[in-house]
Amino acid sequence: MNLLINKFTCLFALTTAALLFAAPLDAADKPKIAVIVSTLNNPWFVVLAEAAKAKAVELGYDATVFDSQNDTAKEASHFENVIAGGYKAILFNPTDAEGSVANVRKAKAANVPVFCVDREINATDAATAQLLSDNYSGCVALGQYFVKQVGKEGKYAELLGLVGDNNTWNRSKGFHSVVDRFPGLKMVAQQSADFDRAKALDVTESILQKDPGLNAIFCGNDAMAMGAYQALVSAGKADKVKVFGFDGADDVVKLIAERKIAATGMQFPKLMAQKAAEFADEYLKGKRDFAQKIPVKVELVTPENVQKYGDYRKKP
């Protein structure tokens, strides 16, 4: 009898072990990838984060999104938790070009590769790679279209994004490289609205009170373009002031199709996020020769070609 019991116990143990080894890995057993984004209070960054996470999961990783809320202190806390939590790679959208460098260096020291997406950091020896929209060239094209639509004379305002983000200044410089050649185009206001829709609404209302004769507003992203447009609607000036954005957000693309917003620069967040996840996967499988900065083309979206764009991409 004892012999029979022992045989049964042995057989049960072997069967259980076989089932355990044959069972697919659950999330707790998969290598982890962190997606740290500057803010989820902007639909464009939500798309970026979701695309990065989805691609990482598709490649076999357990992926988690962390929202820095445009706060460098929160971002630093995320990095500390991610490094301590055993994450194998970080897909990173920085809050500040200068302030985020220390966080990336901390991850590098812990042998956790960082792949910057959309926003860059002011270092070329910290991140493994940086996938960046060609903001300057994109805004050169926007500036050229701006002049065609507004004319060579008129008054305009510029809404800047976060002052610590290089994208803010690359977009502004690209735009001004064209518009500043026309002295008849007068910039009557240049204010930061932090890439935020609600702040852009408030800033635009203030600008309109000081200069009701405005002809156009150039906005450093589409969230601010939507805020500016909302302020113009409230002031009864939506048909008199042309709004230009940057990002390619769906709500702005729809308003361009309705000829309510003049134009935007289409970035490709899904493409950049997916490529960053693929790079992380390649790194973890042994690849090391990544270019430090990888530019991604920006395309001008206007009422003339808007049917080609939507869902944060160019339609097939």
Order of helices and strands: HEHEHEHEEHEHEHEHEHEHEEEE
**Radius of gyration, whole Å:** 24 Å
Query: Main sheet: which strands, in order across?
Result: 2-1-3-4-5-11
Shape: elongated
Quaternary assembly: single chain
Count helical runs: 10
Indicate the proportion of strand residues. Answer: 15-25%
pLDDT averaged over residues: 92
Major sheet size, sense and barrel closure: 6 strands, parallel
**Class by helix and strand content?**
alpha/beta
Count of distinct strands: 14
Please give the share of residues in helix.
40-55%
- Give the termini separation: 72 Å
**Which runs of at least 5 residues are low in confidence (pLDDT < 50)?**
1-25
Describe the structure.
By secondary structure, the chain is of the alpha/beta class. The chain is 45% helix and 19% strand. The chain contains ten helices and 14 strands. The chain has a six-stranded parallel β-sheet, sandwiched between helices. Strands 7-6-8-9 form a four-stranded parallel β-sheet, with helices on both faces. Strands 10-12 form a two-stranded antiparallel sheet. Strand 3 (89-92), helix 4 and strand 4 form a beta-alpha-beta unit. The model is unreliable at 1-25 (pLDDT under 50).
What's this model, at a glance?
The chain is an alpha/beta fold.
Keywords:
single chain; 316 residues; alpha/beta; six-stranded parallel β-sheet; four-stranded parallel β-sheet; elongated; disordered N terminus
What layout of secondary structure does this protein have?
Elements: H1 2-22, E1 32-37, H2 43-58, E2 62-67, H3 72-84, E3 89-92, H4 101-109, E4 114-117, E5 129-133, H5 135-150, E6 154-160, H6 166-179, E7 185-192, H7 197-210, E8 216-219, H8 222-235, E9 242-244, H9 250-257, E10 264-266, H10 269-284, E11 293-296, E12 299-301, E13 309-310, E14 313-314
Parallel strand pairs: 1-2, 1-3, 3-4, 4-5, 5-11, 6-7, 6-8, 8-9
Antiparallel strand pairs: 10-12, 13-14
